[in-house]
Amino acid sequence: MTATLPAFQLPARLEAHRPPEPRDGVRLLTGRRGTGEVSHHRFTDLPALLRSGDVLVVNTSGTLPAAVPVAGSPLTVHFSTATADGSWLVELREADGPYAAGASGDTYALAGGGTVTLREAYSRGRLWVADIDTGTAATVTDLLYAHGSPIRYSYVTRPWPLSAYQTVFGVHPGSAEMPSAGRPFTHELVTRLVTAGVLLVPVLLHTGVASPEAHERPYPEKFAVPATTLRTIARARADGGRVIAVGTTAVRALETAWNGPHSGWTDLVITPERGVRAVDGLLTGFHEPRASHLDMLAAIAGTPLLQRCYDAALEGGYRWHEFGDLNLLLP
Question: Which of 24, 54, 154, 206 sits between 20 and 30 A of 66, alpha carbons compared?
Fold first, then answer.
């Protein structure tokens, strides 16, 4: 599997440390699979890079304040994903990364009340299936809003408000981390896209904590794809339009629903061997070396184009992570 991934090292100077303002003031690197061409743009050029009749598939999940301190401890619990049986997948974190000393049956008191009890390891000791006692809060979501903050990693050097981690599409709270490919969109840019004849259709996928490492067991994420979205896409394709997903979360939701259930939990992994059936292109951020999402990008763009895009991004000083620049992969 790793042979399909672009080979590169990410220098620390290319990590985005703060949310860009204005939101759409980021760069956009575009790669075209048909010609192999790579070109450099601003994100505000997006309407000119798409065609009338194209469809943008956007994720309407909103970001939760999913990091809750452990009372009297330097540890933090990252609430990743609610599961069908009411438990949660969680990650224990210390200052410099995942906390490796957790064990089944351990209980951690949370700031403000409530507890997290580790039931069993889910993947290589990083994620745990856990039972949650919400204390005085009615639900886990209420607990997070009362005592949580947005998940923040070391490359973001200071806290930012929850609003900095929301997209203009995020009307259904539920993601542990922002579906970040949608962050640069503004209401004005959406208006320009619609005026240019580009269709925007919704899907929902509540994303968990940062993408699994290569070969790590995938975790289920809750999704829903409206029937109207599927009909609009089918009609647009029949008329020659292209389907461009905004973010890997939108790809995962749409590919799951294309020939399967329209809602539920998905643990779909998209690789070049599987390929994609519903998506022609992708708008996404730049992903870390060996991240599992790179397999999905290779399935959509092909490894040669993906390697050229990442070479150009590194040479051109593009920024990585949730506050970084964007990569548009077109057919």
Answer: 24
- The pLDDT value given to residue 213: 56
What type of residue is 289? P
Calculate the alpha carbon distances from 182 to 4, 203, 320 in Å. 26, 12, 15
For 18-56, the pLDDT digits (tens) are 999 999 999 999 999 999 999 999 999 999 999 999 999
Q: Which of 213, 282, 290, 216 is nearest to 249 (CA)?
A: 282
Characterize the bridge pairing of strands 172-175 and 221-224. Answer: unpaired
Question: Helices (DSSP H) in 84-139: which residue ranges?
Answer: none
Summarised one tens digit per residue, pLDDT across range 148-194 is 999 999 899 999 999 999 999 999 999 999 999 999 999 999 999 99
What is the C-alpha end-to-end distance of the chain, expressed in Å?
23
CA–CA distance, 62 with 29 (Å, rounded to integer): 26
Q: Is 174:222 a contact under the CB 8 Å cutoff? A: yes
Q: What pTM does this model have?
A: 0.94
User: What is the average pLDDT across 246-257?
Assistant: 97
| pLDDT tens-digit map of 266-302 | 989 999 999 999 999 999 999 988 777 889 999 999 9
Alpha-carbon separation of residue 219 from 127, 209, 258, 277, 300 (angstroms): 9, 10, 20, 22, 22
Name residue 328's beta-bridge partners. 30, 283
Residue 3's φ and ψ, nearest 5 degrees, are: -65, -20
* Contact between residue 65 and residue 54 where contact means Cβ atoms under 8 Å apart: no
Q: Residue 321: what residue type? A: H
CB-based contacts of 182: which residues, under 8 Å, 6+ apart?
58, 59, 167, 168, 169, 170, 246, 247
Report yes or no: 277 and 324 within 8 Å, Cβ to Cβ. no
**Angstrom distance (rounded) from CA 166 to CA 168:** 7
